[in-house]
Amino acid sequence: MNLQNNRRTYHKKEELNKKTSMLSCFSILAFSLTAFVFIIKGSIDAYEQSNLSKTECPQNYTDLKGTHKLLSRINRDNTKNPQYTQGLLFVNETTLLESSGQYGKSSIHYLNLNDVDNLIFNYELPSNQFGEGCDIINNKVYQLTWLERKINVFNADDLSFITDMKLDDKVAAGWGLTHRVFNGEIQVLITDGSNQVHIADENFIVQQSISIFDDKKKPVTNLNELEYVNGTLFANIYLTSKIVAIDLENQRIIATFDFKDLVKDANRKKRDECLNGIAYNQYSDSFWVTGKNWGFIQEVKLF
Ligand SMILES: [Ca+2]
């Protein structure tokens, strides 16, 4: 494996090459990328700092009824370049980090809500790696891989590869990833397809594994993509149209959201092209959800 090969694709560069000489193209591109790195870095710093004050979130996400309201939708081209979305989170008001899966098609990139088909700093994984959940902690991007059990680490400024780490043996496989600040400490939260949420330290060493059950004491398995918002953990349930809100401290489901309406709109070709990807935008106090190879990203309000 050599992740350090330059696999990044710059769509803007390709467009500019058609219009300008190589020299002028390079100058313009270098300036644009430098500016984008600056914007991304500043945004992530600000976003991470503001994460610490999420308790000021307008809505109380510990008291939910399990209903949702559709707010807006952004279509994306899922024919030329479909994204098998595995991880999704906001890095600033309009920019998302997305991890995509499947062997030979896995990648990690940023995308802006104003131009979602332009994959920014797209980094393609080796064909023997299946991308899974992703997160940003202290200006580093972490991306899980599925059965390979590698955690790829990137510079959040430009998604340049830094290193990889081994997934803790307590985690069966790489599925979902997020983090929270709990009692002043960063805790990494990982799912593996079971009903467990593994709580790890900043070095991804698992400290505790919490099993989640529904109100009938039945294990809630297939916990997948994650998002932690103001004391509540949200998780996609693989192969279903559902997202559950979890109270980790009490090992219980607060509410279940069923997005049958969105799954119907997605016109899926395969069963595994299910709802997956949940990202909270703290600026609008809304969630953005999507699915694997879906042709849209949907903004929703959860109640
Ligand atoms: Ca997420």
UniProtKB/TrEMBL annotation:
Domain of life assignment: Eukaryota
Pfam family, one: Glu_cyclase_2
MF terms (GO), sorted A to Z: glutaminyl-peptide cyclotransferase activity
Ranges annotated as spanning the membrane: 21-40
Keywords: Membrane, Transmembrane, Transmembrane helix
PANTHER family (alphabetical): GLUTAMINYL-PEPTIDE CYCLOTRANSFERASE
Protein name (record): Glutamine cyclotransferase
Provenance organism: Paramecium sonneborni
